[in-house]
Amino acid sequence: MRVAVLGATGLVGREMVRILEDRNFPVTELRLLATERSAGEFIDFHDDPKLVEATSAEAFEDIDLVLSSAGGGPSKAWLPVAVKAGATCIDNSSAYRMEEGVPLVIPEINAEHARNHEGIIANPNCSTIQMVMALQPLHDLAGLKRVVVSTYQSVSGKGKSAIDELQDETSQLLNGIPYERRVFDHQIAFNCIPDIDVPVEDDYTREEWKMMVETRKIMDLPDLPITATCVRVPVFFGHAEAVFVEFERPIDIDAAREALNSFPGVTVVDDLANHVYPHQTATAERDEVYVGRIRPDRSVEHGLALWVVSDNIRKGAALNTIQIAEWLRDQKLLGS
What we know:
The chain is an alpha/beta fold. It is 31% helix and 23% strand.
């Protein structure tokens, strides 16, 4: 299969290349595409250094699959070009997620939606993916009535420059050196910032809006009451979420644990007495979505409280994208 990675030099693009190799995706030709500034770099694939090319219309000729993580602007500019050239595109940006006719897919939940694409399939927001992975088995068990979520999102969700800023700012503050911020509006070292992306309606941020509308679309629950507060925290990799769920029917704690643990891609880690639960440093570079601190929410009639953690660069972005491609391949909907 002839594959192009758009945005290959970014955190997610590099992880896509790594996962293609790790999962032995059938790549006969790999084109790595980026901006003019990043062109000329090399990225290893199966011990073969691959040259990064500047993105152009010609780069999509004879390509079967485009994996895109270049941001909304480049996705809007280049993916229609790739589709016209005959490629199937899986996009990790927010550019197409809520567009009519574009499937928004988590393979463990709604893979069949990918069958009805018109050239572009959207990968959900990282914080949405891990929450919905936990919500789906519980919805199957007792029916969702309302969801309240607060996120604790790592700086890697904002890219490598944000990782560098957290590292540099922490080092300089510890050494009593003033730091001039380049990425965040406020200090991120030793601090939490309840402001991810831009403001939208009702003083929610766009990140919060994404979690609400994407969840409804993925789960086919257009009227689901859901509210979110998204917070950037001084952690390099991994997003954590406190999720409070109200159900239509009674739900048993043991049955909830069993439903979560048996759902593909979800692992329950939950033993508070021995201080065992998911956390970001333990789940980095792992594929699973981890759920712990499962307990009753006594503030509502049928409620659970959950703690959900996952690597935002892997399942939240690169891995989910490639899982979509694997499903298309298995259904013989991809490639020559």
